[in-house]
Amino acid sequence: MRTFLIALFCAGVLATQASAGIINFTDTMLGVNETPPNASTATGSATVVLDTTLNTLNVSIVFSGLTGGVASASHIHCCVPAGVVGIVALPFTGFPATISGTYSHLFDLTLLATYNGAFVTANGGTAASAEAALVAGLNAGLAYTNIHDTTFPGGEIRGQLAAIPEPATMFLSGAGLLFAALLRRHRR
Q1: Torsion angle defined by CA atoms of residues 148, 153, 157 and 158, in that order, rounded to the nearest 10 degrees
Q2: Residue closest to 34 by CA, chosen among 93, 89, 74
Q3: Cα–Cα distance measured from residue 87 to residue 80, given in angstroms and rounded to the nearest whole number
Q4: Does this model's pTM top 0.85?
Q5: Which CATH number is 21-164 given?
Q6: Using one digit for the tens of pLDDT, what is the confidence trace for 47-64?
Q7: Distance (Å, whole) CA 53 – CA 39
Q8: Domain regions of the chain by residue span
């Protein structure tokens, strides 16, 4: 049993080391995910790539069919679970005022101007403290993206961001578990 636990621990450490630096998040934005839910038929998806080495956040969004007019704002809210309204953490600078479209932007998380002022104030008052809060919220599944328009000023579509395990992490975790199972079987 002790060998099994050691092997499991080692697999976890290796998996963590393999994923250090780059963490990918994704979501699917729908009206039913908004708070309160709405009957919008619009859809969207976000891919957010956090680079903890370079302190950057690369955001890519595809959206279509906004029913409430053209997009008036879009951003990441943090740090709340699904179904709860959170504070705007990171406004999407230059988001297109269209019904359907794409958006891509690389944010420098070390800059105070990257964040919404109220988020900075609520989380320690510095860019470093805002970054720490946002990264913690993303990692805990407590951040979401949404798109606002005139008919839905609180947001027409929303999606809760979730981490995507990278293939190397899944491989190392699986290899560690296989190794642990083989050790356990061998000892019997």
Answers
A1: 90
A2: 74
A3: 9
A4: no
A5: 2.60.40
A6: 999 999 999 999 999 999
A7: 40
A8: 21-164
